[in-house]
Amino acid sequence: YARDNCKPELTEEAGKILKRFYIKMRKKAEGTNLPVPITLRQFEALIRLSEASAKIQLSPVVRKEDAQRAIRLMRYSLIQLGLDPETGMIDVDRAEGAGTTSSERNKIKIVLDIINELSAVKKEVLVEDIRNKAKKEGVDDVDEILEKLKREGMLFEPSPGYVQKV
């Protein structure tokens, strides 16, 4: 019945509440190197969640309570799925299932830059040299990053203790 007969319209008040939440979340990362905590895609999802909340009550309009319910649900899911354990910030890439946070991507880039620099001299790069240079750059989990790059097919291990770009 609700699917066919209930098409709730967003009230101005509910729209303003959703918009304020979206802008507040976006401003957290504005002008910084921090990951974007929310995208337009999540804002559209907030609207749909608000409409669903109104529809389940067979309401013809989306009220402020519906918008607030949607925001609570979005906050909870972003914290559960999108919290970057290293920075403590919400990272939308992690929340959307990309699996790699922006801080992890930065570390991977540093390690790849080191490998590129060292492989200019010799194709096979000693893992210990990568570890030492990465430590100076503030990257401690080099072995995990190298394993990830090997799994993704970007590196291989020509001999124990060495890696080479594919």
What does this structure look like?
- The protein is mainly alpha-helical and 166 residues long.
- Helix content is 59%, strand content 7%.
- It contains eight helices and five strands.
- The chain has helices at residues 2-5, 12-27, 40-56, 64-82, 92-95, 102-119, 127-136, 142-151, and strands at residues 9-10, 61-62, 125-126, 155-156, 162-165.
- The mean pLDDT is 88.
Set out the fold topology:
Blueprint: H1 2-5, E1 9-10, H2 12-27, H3 40-56, E2 61-62, H4 64-82, H5 92-95, H6 102-119, E3 125-126, H7 127-136, H8 142-151, E4 155-156, E5 162-165
Structural class designation: mainly alpha
| Parts with pLDDT < 50 across at least 5 consecutive residues | none
* Relative helix content: 55-70%
Structural Rg? 23 Å
Q: In CATH terms, what is the fold-level topology of the largest domain?
A: Helicase, Ruva Protein, domain 3
CATH architecture tag of the largest domain:
Orthogonal Bundle
Overall geometric form: elongated
Domain count: 2
Largest sheet: 3 strands, antiparallel
In whole angstroms, how far apart are the ends? Answer: 57 Å
Mean pLDDT: 88
For the largest sheet, list the strands in their spatial order.
Answer: 3-5-4
CATH class label of the largest domain: Mainly Alpha
Number of E-state strands:
5
**Series of H and E elements:** HEHHEHHHEHHEE
Helical element count?
8
Q: Per DSSP, what share of the residues sits in E-state strands of 2 or more residues?
A: 5-15%
